[in-house]
Amino acid sequence: MRRLVVMLVLCAPLVARAGDYTLTLERLIGPPATPGTFNDPTAIPIQTAYRSLMSEMGVVFAPKWMSPSDTLGWSGFHLSFDAAFTSISNTQDYWQKGVRDASSGFLPTITVMARKGIWAPLPSFEIGAGASYLVDSPIVALITYMKFAIHEGMHKFPMPSIALRGAVSRPFGTSQVDMTVVSTDLSLSKSFGVGGTLKLDPYLGANLLLTIVKSQVIDTTPNIDAFKQGPMSVDLNSNTTFPDQDTILRWRLFVGLRLVWSLLAVSFEYAYTFCNDTARDCGVESPTRITDRSDGQSTISLSAGLLF
Fold first, then answer.
1. Residues 266-300: pLDDT tens digits?
2. Is the model's pTM score more than 0.70?
């Protein structure tokens, strides 16, 4: 409980400095210089900024774990309310232009998740679904996952539980981009009883994160009305799209602890996502090719719920 209070105190100022994370991708492209033209969204610096923003945004909406490798069992059910704070490179140009107000270095999300153990297609399966809301934005992501425990339940022996999990997150609420975040991971955990009433489940693992992005039509002059300005308006033919990006790949490591007392389950988790797809040359931009300038990102997550 003391640790929970400390983490909430540390995260509270982050929410107080929150901005407005509505996407403004038109500002990455810029307004037309003359009527009937628009800045080229295929230019390498513009595409690099777009890819970098989507890379860090994908980590924000990526599914969290908040549970050990053990499944719930075929009759188990878990309902939880989660809060997460993910760091972003808010001083970089792609954040300053790509959202309405990136004044905070952490993006908060609030998530409701339901998890259920099942006996199909094999024993030791678990499925889950939920929704995650990016605070101070119109964006909500729907999340679903499936977990298979390769080994679990041998808590009296010095061997961990091992699980594979696949998850998908689909953000909605913006007309400028279509995003799908696919997550696959391997986790280890070990359960310990304390005093016959409290159960501790520390866990850790590694994760591959794939962000698939497709640009939708973007109005580069959203505040200009061509009807009012007439035939010489810069709003004419100002709609455009970004070229399709290659799938964005990121690597994550995570560690967490779940405490179970009676029906109450509380989890604490920390995840670190390495920069770009190589975890090297963070923030480096190339004049000849499109790059991912994303920096390493930390995510602190808290969860409280009922475990049946």
1. 999 999 999 988 888 888 888 889 999 999 999 99
2. yes
* Residues present in the chain in total: 308
Instruction: For 123-141, write each residue's pLDDT tens digit.
Output: 789 999 999 999 999 999 9
May I ask the CATH class of domain 2-287+299-307? mainly beta
Cα(185)–Cα(150) distance, integer angstroms = 13
- Does the bond joining 121 to the residue before it have cis omega, within 30 degrees of 0? yes
Q: Are 32 and 238 in contact (CB under 8 A)?
A: yes
At residue 37, φ and ψ (nearest 5 deg) are -125, 170
Over the Cα atoms of the chain, what is R_g?
22
Nearest one of 14, 132, 152 to 66, comparing CA atoms: 132
- Bridge partners of 224, per DSSP, are none
What is the dihedral sign for C-alpha 130, 134, 137, 139? negative
| Cβ-count burial 203-237 (b if 16+ within 10 Å, e if not) | bbbebebbbbbebeebebbeebebeeeeeebbbbe
CA distances from residue 248 to 81, 107, 153, 251, 298 in whole angstroms, order as listed = 29, 20, 36, 10, 18
What DSSP line would sit under the chain, residue for residue?
-HHHHHHHHHHHHHHHT--EEEE-THHHH---SSTT----TTSHHHHHHHHHHHHHHHHHHSPP--S-SS---TT-EEEEEEEEEEE--TTSHHHHHHEEE---SEEEEEEEEEEEEE-SSSSSEEEEEEEEEETTSS-EEEEEEEEEEEE---TTTT--EEEEEEEEEEEES-SSEEEEEEEEEEEEE--EEETTTEEEEEEEEEEEEEEEEEE--EES-TT--HHHH-TT-TTTT-EE-PPPPPPEEEEEEEEEEEEEETTEEEEEEEEEE-STTTS-STT---SSS----PPPEEEEEEEEEEE-
Which residue ranges make up each domain of the chain? 2-287+299-307
